[in-house]
Amino acid sequence: MSYLENIKVFEEYEKLLNKVSTYITNESEIEMIKKAYEYSAKAHYSEKRLTGEDYIIHPLNVALILTTVRADYETICAGLLHDLIETNDSEYEDIKNNFNETIADLVKGITRINKLNFEGDTQAIIASNRKILVGLTEDVRVIIIKLADRLHNMRTLWAIPEKAQKEKAKETLDILTPIAHRLGIGSLKSELEDLSLRYYKPDIYFSIVEMLNKTKAERDCNVDEMIKSVSEILNNKGIKHKIKGRSKSIYSIYKKLDKGKKFSDIYDLLALRVYVDEVEECYQALGYIHAIYKPMPKRFKDYIAMPKANMYQSLHTTVFGVHSELFEIQIRTYEMDEIAENGIASHWSYKEKGSNTKASLKNTMEQKLQFFKSIMELNDKDASDDEVVNTLKEDVLNSSVYVFTPNGDVIELANGSTPIDFAYRVHTNVGNKMVGAIVNGNIVPLDYKLKDNDIVKINTNNNSKGPSKEWMNIAYTTQAKNKIRSYFNKIDKQEYLKNGEELLKEELRKKKIAFNEFLSTENVNKILTELKYKDLEELYTNLGNNKLPLGTVINIIYNENDTKEDLILKKATNNEVVLPTIKNDIIVRGIDQIKVNVASCCKPVPGDSIVGYITKGNGIAVHRMSCPNVKDVEERIIDVEWNNEISKKYPTSLLIHSSTNKDVLLKIITKTSNSNITVQSINTLNSNDSFAFELVVVVPDLEKLNKFITDINNIPDIIDVERVIK
Ligand code: MN
User: Fold this and answer.
1) Is 491 exposed, middle or buried (0-12, 13-18, 19+ CB in 10 A)?
2) Per the domain annotation, does 420 fall within a domain?
3) Residues with Cβ within 5 Å of ion ligand 1?
4) What is the count of structural domains for the chain?
5) How many CB atoms lie within 10 A of CB 363?
């Protein structure tokens, strides 16, 4: 065992075996891990890392990290072997023959995603990179090995050049920690975040460390005292428990500072965590603690009754504790703690004894992957990042200011609120008639940021002309903004109403039609029925804001047989004007006020030859010229064209036939990264002897799409690419 000469390697290896034996009992599985170590050590023999250490230290540490989330033996073996497939298939075959297919596949999976280059800065690219990483992973364990691999690389990041350090750190924060978060692997997530911050924003990182050090002795002393006190409370009630002081991660402090909080205001710096056996005891413990230490309002959260999407459960509360200091207390069972630290990883191996036939194991892994994907999709559907949603939620729940009316009533507002928000919270009319604000006896500007305990008096004047549009930018809360907006909508509506009536009168005057004759009861009924309006007011408003062409109204009375669509047809044939229409992307000849939709059967993109089809009552559907769905309806066809300046990207479907499904998807996805094309969804359609993928891609124009299609066609194994028409 010559490669064990190195004492450090030997120690790490011993550590690994010790950790493994705490939860893996099957002898043959442990033998397999030992074998993987020997195999890897031999293969990496004489290789060095940039840190100067023997290379084997890296896979050993990856395996060690994997034991902290209690990974199963196959994952640990793959962790030890993860850097061994370089280029050729023979390495894969070797691992498969020496170990098993699952382990070889895991190693191959990690090699594959390590080859991806995740660059890009916009939220959309970052989100799509995350999605690609997940989408290409057939086994969730690959992602967990990737997280462990990255964690050890981050721990030794000092060894690489500064520029590369920053890039790795940013990539980790953008792509990997959100995945760790969604998988609920708190232990890996928080160390990855702290390490990333240390390299990505070293100034901030070290200033936080320094602030923490300065206050450490005092904090420790307070926390110890509080632990003793809480422990006594629970002992008196006979609740078996364990309590730990908890230090906030540096990254979480950074996020709070970044949101504008002062270091001295981050009160949950004093934090402890109570562990109990049973769920009921969580609530009992909470009650007993609240009975002695007054809880802070609005800070209690019950994640037991309502677990987070990543399965996290705990009770959170903040209390006025010893020396009137604020303490954040988390209460959870040991099982909840396991899930909080290890997330999805806590659900395998040791809990699945007795189900270790290969088929059932594969089945459970697939279920996990399914679960895992559903977590990722959750985030795509509402098109907003989970993190963002959480931050918003936290803004609402945590960052409130409490201010007083002159009568002493408390009003809670989001942190960042101004007197305008206050006024609209009191009453819409107070807001609309506000002319100034007095805080604590002093006149303040309207963009003044309210603070806790401010006493706010709003000056109103009944002759006030109402809010100014500028207030929309000053107000902080959505509530106030909505109220200001609706005030202006009402004003605008009155304006439109007046304009509309005048426009109609003028047009009738030109046509020498008497206004009263035109608007006879009979005619009015006809017009309202035809346009599905409820009264003349609606008619005038729509005329006034140009949603309804005057001609349409007049034609209803004087061309009785024409339907709305017929009128459009007529208008289209005597065209002179070309006006950009809806969203300005598609121009309909001669018509400026009609709904335009892109047909979902053939999904045209800018640059495609297109044709408009006048639907029954749903505006114009734009199809590709070649779309068979529009063939037989010539009288409903209308000229449309793409605008020169397109504002959006458009989705379209591709059907890709391939002779194999090995790695093809990866190669296809890789082609998107250099072409300003994003993949919206992938559907694999495998039949017995052929493979096909349906890809929905979002593209800027036909040229880019055609280049992408050519790129795909050039991939070996690809038989054909076609655009889908349904
Ligand atoms: Mn590695």
Assistant:
1) exposed
2) no
3) 83, 149
4) 5
5) 12
Looking at the fold, whether 250 and 325 belong to one and the same domain comes out as yes
Please state, in angstroms and rounded to a whole number, the distance separating the CA atoms of residues 726 and 723: 10
Centroid of ligand 1 to alpha carbon of 133 (angstroms): 16
Q: What is the CATH number of the domain that holds 191?
A: 1.10.3210.10
**Residue 719: strand, helix, or coil:** strand
Q: Which of 311, 345, 379 is the last residue of a domain?
A: 345
In a domain, 48, yes or no: yes
Same domain, 690 and 709: yes
Please give the pLDDT value at position 81: 95
CB 112 within 8 A of CB 135: no
Residue 353: HSE in the Cβ half-sphere, 13 Å Cα cutoff: 6
User: What CATH number does residue 664 fall under?
Assistant: 3.30.70.260
- DSSP H or E run through 435: strand 434-439
| Ligand 1 centre distance from Cα of residue 69 (Å) | 18
Distance 79 CA to ligand 1 centre (A): 8
- Consecutive H or E run containing 543: helix 536-544
User: What is the pLDDT at residue 488?
Assistant: 86
| Ligand 1 centroid, distance to 54 Cα (angstroms) | 13
Q: Do 636 and 688 share a structural domain?
A: no
pLDDT of residue 59: 96
Enter the tokens of residue 6.
Answer: 């190195």
pTM score, whole prediction? 0.52
Query: Which portions of the chain are predicted below pLDDT 50?
Result: 1-2, 4, 349-368, 371-398, 560-562, 564, 567, 570-583
Q: Are residues 162 and 27 in the same domain?
A: yes
Examine the domain organization and report whether 310 and 250 are in the same domain.
yes
Distance 47 CA to ligand 1 centre (A): 13
Whether 680 is in a domain gets the answer yes
pLDDT at position 632, please?
Answer: 63
pLDDT score at 560? 46
**Distance from the alpha carbon of residue 55 to the mean position of ligand 1, in angstroms:** 10
Same domain, 53 and 183: yes
Q: DSSP characters for 334-396?
A: HHHHHHHHHGGGGGSGGGGTT--SHHHHHHHHHHHHHHHHHHHHHHHHTTS-HHHHHHHHHHH
Of 151, 181, 200, at which residue does a domain stop? 200
What does the pLDDT read at residue 258?
86
Distance CA 720, CA 690 (A): 12
Rounded-to-integer distance, Cα 276 and Cα 282, Å: 7
CATH of the domain at 212: 3.30.460.10
- 512: exposed, middle or buried (C-beta count within 10 Å: 0-12, 13-18, 19+)? exposed
**Domain limits for position 538:** 486-560
Instruction: Indicate whether 460 belongs to any domain.
Output: no
Closest CA relative to residue 57, chosen from 32, 75, 83: 83
Residue-wise pLDDT tens digits, 330-348: 999 998 888 888 776 665 5
The reply to whether 170 and 58 lie within a common domain is yes
DSSP states of 623-674: EETT-GGGTT-GGGEE-EEE-SS--S-EEEEEEEEES--SSHHHHHHHHHTT
What's the pLDDT tens digit per position in 239-288?
999 999 887 788 988 988 888 888 777 756 788 999 999 999 999 999 99
Q: What is the pLDDT of residue 122?
A: 67
If asked whether residues 92 and 18 sit together in one domain, one would say yes
> In the structure encoding, which two tokens stand for residue 704, read together?
């880019």
What is the distance between the alpha carbons of residues 500 and 218, in angstroms, rounded to a whole number?
72
Q: What is the pLDDT of residue 634?
A: 65
3-class SS letters over 183-216: CCCHHHHHHHHHHHHHHHCHHHHHHHHHHHHHHH
Residue 674 CA to ligand 1 centre (angstroms): 26
